[in-house]
Each structure stands twice: as C-alpha cells, then as structure tokens.
Design brief:
There is one protein chain. This protein has two domains: about 5-165 and about 310-355, Metallo-beta-lactamase, Chain A (4-Layer Sandwich), CATH 3.60.15; about 170-305, Rossmann fold (3-Layer(aba) Sandwich), CATH 3.40.50.10890. The chain has ten helices and 18 strands. The chain has helices at about 60, 80-85, 170-180, 195-205, 215-225, 235-245, 265-275, 290-295, 310-320, 340-345; strands spanning about 5-10, 15-20, 25-30, 50-55, 75-80, 95-100, 105, 110-115, 125-130, 135, 155-160, 185-190, 210, 255-260, 280, 300-305, 325-330, 355. A hairpin with a 5-residue loop joins strand 9 and strand 10. Helix 5 (about 215-225) runs antiparallel to helix 6. The longest helix is centred in the middle third of the chain and has 12 residues, at about 215-225.
C-alpha cells in the first residue's frame, strides 16, 4: 500500500505540500507559501524526505523551498523552464534535477509520468502508476491557447486543482469582458511567469495594442527559446508581439499596460499603483494584506477574472476521463465546491491521510 499525507493545500486556499510514501520512499510534491503573505506548511510535520518534485514556479507551490534543510536537503526535480524561474540561491546546482515537460521518468525507485498542465510556462502534473495510480495535477487549465495541456492517464486517486470552486464561466467570455473594460487604457497586473504573454496575444488578436513591462518581455523571449512548451502555431504571433514593442517604453495613462506582479506588490504594477490616474483591472486571487486587495476595497480598481485554473465543467471532465475513484479537491474550501461534490462521479475526500 502507498499513502498520501496532506501537509497543506486542502480545506482552504493554502500553499501546496503533498507527501507520498511508497516502497519506503518519501516524495514531496511541491512546497509552497501563500497566497496569503507568510502562510507556510508545517515543515516540522513533514520530517525527512527523499526528494521533492515541483509542478511549477509560483510562490504557493515553491515559496517554502528555502526551508528544505529541515527536510534533510533532498534533491529537487522540476522542468527546465521551472528551474529558469527559481532563484539560484534557493537550491544548489548539485541538487537540481531536470524533468521533461512530458514523458516517463524515475525519481528514486518510483516510476512517474509527467505532462504539461497548461497553467504556466514549464508547469507539469505527475502520475504515479503504482497501486491503481495517483495523479497530482498541481495547478492546471485546458483553456489556454498558448500553453498545451496533456491529458493525464487513469488513476484511482486524483488530487486536482479546485481553486475556482464551482465557477462555470469560460475564459473566452472573460477575455471579451476585459477587452471591453480596457478601452481608454488600463493596467492589467499579472503574475510573474503566468498569463502575461497569453493576455498580450489575446488582446492583440482583438485589435487592442498593448505595452508590456520588461518582465513580460523576458517571459516571451524565454517561451520562444523553449518552443516545446507552447503551441507551435502561435510562435510567430508571439514573436510579432515582441517585435512591435518600443525599445524605450513610456508608460502613460490611456495605454493598455500588462505588468507584473498580479497583486501590485512589486514590479511595474506596484510602481504604477502609486501614481494617480491609472485604471487597474486585477484578475488573480487577491489575498488580504496585498496592494491589490487594498485598492479593490477602496474602490480604486476593478476585478475581472481570467481563468488559469479549471472551471467546473473541465473539472468534471477530468474526473470522468481519469476514472478516479477518490478525488482530493485542493486549494479550496469545502463549502465552495458543493456543485462539484454533487455532480462528481467520484467522492470528494477531505481526510489528511489517504491510502491507495
């Protein structure tokens, strides 16, 4: 028998940390912090682990990596793109192991399969075939036009990203709302290594000129350098986005500006949030204590969602396609997934210790 221990990530919007034990080997999927500032998993509850596998580089999945010493300084596995996004000082080069974006691999004695999750550049899911199968999705989305999604195989136990609860609105409708809202100019804050490049593509395809912050420009260049991580038919369009950016941009009111970070706590978004006259439209989760939450509460900004996690319909389709017998709904409160619980062909479970 194998087991999963939920260290963090179930019952609320909490940082990811899921411990798998199989054949005496202890493998930790993700080790995050946030999204509420300072919220971390209980590191002491984990104990020593043999390896850490990362799904992607967002803070709520990697933000506690610097506490790795308390876990015995295990080796860390991630895709090449993810490693490019993680500060070098967080993990020594000798402890960094590169995973493919999709394919079969081994971590210690454990055979694994991984695939692209469609959530962020370099983001992947993991599948352990033993004992009927376990799939850990990390964060995922099937709605991105730029980032591919590889369907995972069948698994008895599915740990899925339920960040949006019972939300049903598709991304295409949200894009149309944002396209209307930015007329006359707006700042669109986005996460580092997130939806920025796709947002630029989608708005430009609707005839809306955008100005990008330096971080988003770097992200587009990185995507073009790793073409296996994006849909091939969009490579030329992505190159054109960069080509049409001015060398010395002047960020002024009346322009549509895509800038990091998503909550205006850092980057160009933070700087512009301190200037008068800029309209802000947030689209990410905005936790208490962030500049975004402060602006929204004061009526100084709007919030229009942009899906980077699965809506209800995609969630149900994944559960059916994987023929899961048990589902762990991660990163959500139980009362926010009543429709999912009622319509899922497999029961949602909320225990902290699960055998499979």
């Amino acid at each position: 028998m194998a087991s999963v221990t939920v260290i963090s990530g179930v019952g609320e919007k909490l940082p990811a940390a899921f411990l798998v034990e199989n054949h005496g080997y202890r493998l930790l999927f993700d080790l995050g912090e946030g999204p509420q500032p300072g919220v971390r998993p209980d590191i002491q509850a984990i104990g020593r682990v043999d390896a850490i596998c990362l799904t992607h580089s967002h803070g709520d999945h990697i933000g506690s990596l610097q506490a790795r010493e308390a876990l015995g300084n295990p080796p860390v596995y991630a895709s090449r793109q993810t490693w490019q996004q993680i500060p070098e000082q967080w993990v020594d080069e000798r402890d960094r192991y590169v995973l493919p974006l999709k394919g079969h691999l081994s971590v210690g004695p454990l055979p694994l399969l991984c695939g692209r999750s469609g959530h962020a550049p370099g983001a992947i899911w993991f599948h352990l075939p033993d004992n009927g199968g376990l799939t850990y999705m990390g964060d995922w989305s099937r709605e991105s036009l730029l980032l591919p999604f590889d369907p995972p195989p069948a698994a008895n136990l599915l740990i899925t990203d339920a960040s949006y609860g019972d939300r049903t609105e598709p991304l295409v409708d949200q894009i149309e709302q944002i396209a209307l809202a930015v007329k006359g100019g707006a700042v669109l804050p986005v996460p580092v290594n997130g939806r920025g490049p796709e947002m630029a593509l989608q708005l430009l395809s609707r005839g809306i000129r955008v100005l990008l912050c330096p971080e988003i420009r770097k992200e587009i260049a990185a995507l073009l350098a790793e073409p296996s991580g994006i849909c091939s038919r969009l490579q030329l369009q992505l190159l054109e986005v960069l080509h049409h950016q001015p060398e010395q941009p002047d960020y002024t009111q009346g322009q549509v500006i895509i800038a990091t970070d998503a909550i205006a706590d850092s980057g160009l978004a933070a700087k512009l949030s301190q200037r008068r006259g800029f309209r802000f439209i947030f689209s990410s989760h905005t936790a208490e204590g962030t500049r975004a939450r402060e602006m929204l509460d004061a009526g100084q900004a709007r919030w229009i969602p942009w899906n980077v996690h699965p809506p209800l319909g995609d969630q149900l389709e994944l559960i059916r396609a994987t023929r899961a017998r048990k589902v762990i709904a991660a990163f959500v409160a139980e009362h926010d997934v009543r429709q999912l619980a009622a319509r899922s062909p497999a029961p949602l479970i909320w225990e902290r210790e699960i055998t499979f």
